[in-house]
Amino acid sequence: MYALGAHLLVELKDCNAEVLKDLGKVKETMVSAAKEAKATIIDVSFHEFNPFGISGMVVIAESHLSIHTWPEYAYAAVDIFTCGDVIKPEAAAQYLINQFESKNPSIVEMKRGIVSCSNEKLPHKVCAAELQLVS
Amino acid sequence: MYALGAHLLVELKDCNAEVLKDLGKVKETMVSAAKEAKATIIDVSFHEFNPFGISGMVVIAESHLSIHTWPEYAYAAVDIFTCGDVIKPEAAAQYLINQFESKNPSIVEMKRGIVSCSNEKLPHKVCAAELQLVS
Q1: pTM (2 d.p.)
Q2: For every residue of chain A, which 3-state class applies, written as one string?
Q3: Looking at the annotation, which residues of A are catalytic?
Q4: What's the average pLDDT block by block, 10 residues per block, for chain B (135 residues)?
Q5: Hey, are the CB atoms on A125 and B64 less than 8 Å from each other?
């Protein structure tokens, strides 16, 4: 069985709450995490909510990273969805665990888009040697 | 046990491949799905790749919706991450199954941020009666 995507669901508990409520820090950390994974960043969108909490997305050529923070629970939910053999999502996850100072992290990996090995075609985001953004 | 977020991992197989490669249609469908779920849309980011395939994010006040399409496999991976009791993620999932004409859909729900019932505080994105975007 071969999966088109690898999806890490990262539960970051017992984090540094001050960091989780800092929009600039959370955005910077997520962008850096994408770079740690060797991803190609295409778009970034981060927003802060009242009374507190941040939601952010980093769109990458290899799929996306997302985060939602609940500072009052010292908790952040992170998703790292990637495709391709070059990218290193585990490196991004470990970087986030360290940067948010999570004392109780957990990671679940879900395989997305399981396709038959008999299918000779490679996923387009893997076989495209020169990935180009057309719009 | 009480979870801060509900995360639907939606596998859309055997879809209409022509729809999955149409940037405008995919974007319109995802935005409509967010509205079907009664979500408050904050930001939208969709991109088309070469040779084909679309990645898109809909940031909502209640978290996010994301999609990655592989038209050559007639497959799309959708995530619907929500928090709060008002939003209806299942309605968004069913809408997407219908719109992309998936003949083989599956949904897995993951609870994100499980917190103790003894914690009297409500999640900020639920207790904030008048959710305001501050940046």
Answers
A1: 0.88
A2: CEEEEEEEEEEEECCCHHHHCCHHHHHHHHHHHHHHCCCCEEEEEEEEEECCCEEEEEEECCEEEEEEEEHHHCEEEEEEEECCCCCCHHHHHHHHHHHCCCCEEEEEEEEEEEECCCCCCCCHHHHCCCCEECC
A3: 63, 68, 83
A4: 93 98 98 98 95 94 97 97 95 98 97 73 45 47
A5: no
